[in-house]
Amino acid sequence: MRPFELTAPESVADAVASPGTFLAGGTTLVDLMKLNVMTPQRVLDINALPLRGIDTSDGLRIGALERMSDIAAHPGVYPVISRALLQSASQQLRNMASIGGNLLQRTRCGYFRDVNMPCNKRQPGSGCSAINGVNRMHAILGTSDSCVATHASDVAVAFVALDAEITLAGASGTRTVKLDDFYRVPGDTPDVENDLRPGELITEVVVPRLDWARRSTYVKVRDRQSYEFALASAAVALDIQDGQIADARVAAGGVATKPWRLTAVEEALRGRPATTQSFEDAASVAADGAKPLSHNSFKPALLRRTVVRALIEGSR
Amino acid sequence: MTSRLDGPLKVTGGAKYGADNLLPGMVHGYVVVSTTAHGEITAMDVTAAKGAPGVIAVYSPFDSLEMRPAETPLFGTTWVPLQDREVTYYGQPIGLVVAETYEQARDAAMLIEVSYQERPAVTSFENGIPTAEIAPAPRPGVEAEITVLADGVESIEDALAASPVVVEATYSTATQNHAAMEPHSAVAEWTADGLIVYSGNQAAYIQAAELASALEIDVESVRCVNPYVGGAFGGKGRTSVTAFLAAAAARALDRPVKVVLTREQVFTATATRPATLQKIALGAAEDGTLTAIRHDSWSSTAMDRSFVEPTSHGTSREWYATPNLAVSQRMVPLNVPPVTYMRAPGEAPGSFALESAMDELAIALNMDPIELRLRNNSTAPPGHDLLWSSKHLDECYRIGADRFGWAERSPDGRADGDWLVGMGTATAMFPAIRFPATVRVTLRDDDTAEVGTAGADPGTGLWTVMSLVGAESLDIAQDRVIPLLGDSALPPGGLSGGSTATASVGSAIMAAATQVIDDLTALASSAGAPFEALEVSYEDGRVLAGGRSMSFGELLRATGNTTISATATSAPGEELTKHSFSSFGAQFVEVRVHKWTREARVSRMLGVFDAGRIINEKTARSQIMGGMIWGVSAALHEGLEIEANGRFANADLANYLVPVNADIPAVDVHFVQYPDTLHNPVGAKGLGEIGTVGMAAAVANAIHNATGIRVRHIPIVIEDLID
Questions:
Q1: What ipTM was reported for this prediction?
Q2: Domains defined along chain B, listed by start
Q3: CA distance A149 to B333
Q4: Could you report the per-residue pLDDT of B102-113, keeping only the tens digit for each?
Q5: How many CB atoms lie within 10 A of CB B22?
Q6: What number of CA atoms fall less than 13 Å from residue A179's CA on the CB side?
Q7: Residues of A with Cβ-Cβ distance to B655 under 8 angstroms
Q8: Using CB atoms, which residue from A36, A108, A221 is nearest to B718?
Q9: Which chain B positions have a beta carbon within 8 Å of A232's beta carbon?
């Protein structure tokens, strides 16, 4: 970790006008600074900014500095969000990590995290070590010839399923972006991970009201029971009326370069009876278009199975 | 049951580990490691590093520290860093930056540019199998290939061909790292009396000998201090590169130096358990009686070929009664970090293969797996005349089956909602060994006693065992016994390795206590002493004669002494010519595999062990529980991924997985207690390693019971169970 200058802006306006890298919970930034992957010269501690509050009166509004653990424990939060949060990281990390920071966390690709290895995301043009390397944890959807890194957030998958938006403050004012549109697939520029403009700061996450999302869940499949990233995950919400699926929201994690909305699965569910057979039929298209890598040819099947399980558990 | 004496210190932060020593004027070293697996370092540009803030010195093969390879009787030659430009593995220590602070040293190290003349690296264990080399003889008189044949049988192949039922399969196990919680670290200081090194290690006196050899100084002028060790498991047997570098740099700079490996460096700059491949064939009669065992084993090894994982020798050589046996051991040298002992070396990965094969044989015979094992229970290792000194494996199985509810097991598992549930079992064995140990017992005039030996307690419970055996041997309360451990200035003994410490140190404590009591009673009856010319006896911490008694403290004060000491050694001897010795166990696991997403989770586990006398059931249980959790870890989580270029793809604790609390349900441990005084006077046999031995096979067997899928490699992961 190189020496850096630490300051604490006193307002959002002050923060977005100051050059530097924002520090909230620090669970990604400090980690990557210790590995020399991120070497900011100026760090802006934004923890004193008034970006707090969890409001469930009409949908869900979450201040960007709310901690993951507080959101997970809030009684008004949709189950899919709460469960995605509770299966993330560890209690200690959830106590520190902010929701805004969670949405901007960097990939866990081991080559991105090792400065001795080529990585197009860390050092554009240097090459991708993962495509021909150890890539079991990597993505099968949304990949390109330059990057196959998986998006690591769980709660972002739940947010994308629920059409969440984020509010961004910048030097020229604020704007609102749908989270699904905010994230970018890598293409030829894997270093550009999202639509964030220089100096912009996430101030709020907004989930539109969706009363039937009370029937929702998040299933995360991983190599151990806690404190591990997903091999595959699924966020589902189901509107079941008289045993029929009126509407559905489905998104997947652990398999794609960004939180992956599965609209084809949603479409296949609508109007079908809420049965395991319907879930299996709908999930059969979940991995369409997947490009498995040398170490993760199991992921399309695992993704389909994970979606089925989430639909079964979500429908209960 | 006695609580761990060092427990309160450890949970309150009071226990001082090696790197906790902060000495006046101390500076910090950061290790630089190679980023190629094979080649010669042609240049290291250290100009920028030397100019960085706080930097005091930069050492490299071009500007080295004065050392030579360490030579000791136990370990042979131990490599020391920076002595040449050869790189034989990725992550090899090639430099040391010393600065005023750790951060300055680390930042400066990032500025070093290394140039290599790279050579092709051999990194694939699998590709090396066809050209594997025969392993060196494990010890004098024992070859890597051993065949035992019944009269009239020409070959093991003939024995297998004549067997009515044969199962044959190939198993493999992953490269593992000990991943102890305390990273390898050292603080070294040179004083007028010589060198002091604070560094977590499995035997202070052996570390002192290695340092003396490497630094070419008298062993008497080296003192190693390691009262607390944050886990070792074989990975802190040899002296670490941090201790060599800290000691040599402190000598060069004439300042105390601390060197701590990063977690990533621990994976490469120390040593690992080798990968193994094992081919097993079991032949049996229709009633399950074994007629032949063939167990061929391959182990990865580093280019120095200094260690192989003795899987076939550690298991099939000894475990079951069979008239025909053939075991072999081969090795595949690779450009990988050094390999070494890791908890149950040989036995743990070996039993995964043998005990999986036994499960497969039971299925082929349509026989209960426990019944098959008891049918082949041995009274001695195959082809040996020396009977087991004390063996109650059958009782372990009977008690275990009852406690675990084995009778409810169906051959096809059962379903619980969306979870498939299965049970598995496996035998565990670990040889009962002891090493020579010397202990000093000192009685003090305040009526306390010190019991001291140089070795180490890396979390095993040896501190507590020493106080208990000391109290028993001196016939005083445990709180009056002060154990001394982890200091090479103490008498040599108590190496933590091979599950030997309790038997070795305990026996020496008994001998030294007997001696000091003899000396005490002689003192009591000596001329001018309170019991002059009387026949003095000793009981309950007191000397008695003529209807009077005094505590030993009172006697010492009355005779003008502050202490009386005796030192005694206990070592293996004639018993080795009379019996074979081992600990035994029966292990049981229940797993749940999700019907849809296929993750396997252990839901119950039990181990029943015959390990001789249990000195302290509480710490003994902890040892076994830790071992069993290790076994779950090997079965379902742990494995280093070695890339074609020799780099470990998952060398950190985020990617090298070990179980978390949520993976481990309650662990049931039971001991059948038959003191084995044929092995040693204390009657205790080893506990440190056997807990891990049977677990991986028990997990794999349970997964087969639950799913019908036989996985012949570990770790077993989700994709292995997706059809």
A1: 0.97
A2: 346-433+572-723 (3.30.365.10), 437-571 (3.30.365.10)
A3: 33
A4: 999 999 999 999
A5: 10
A6: 29
A7: 110
A8: A221
A9: 597
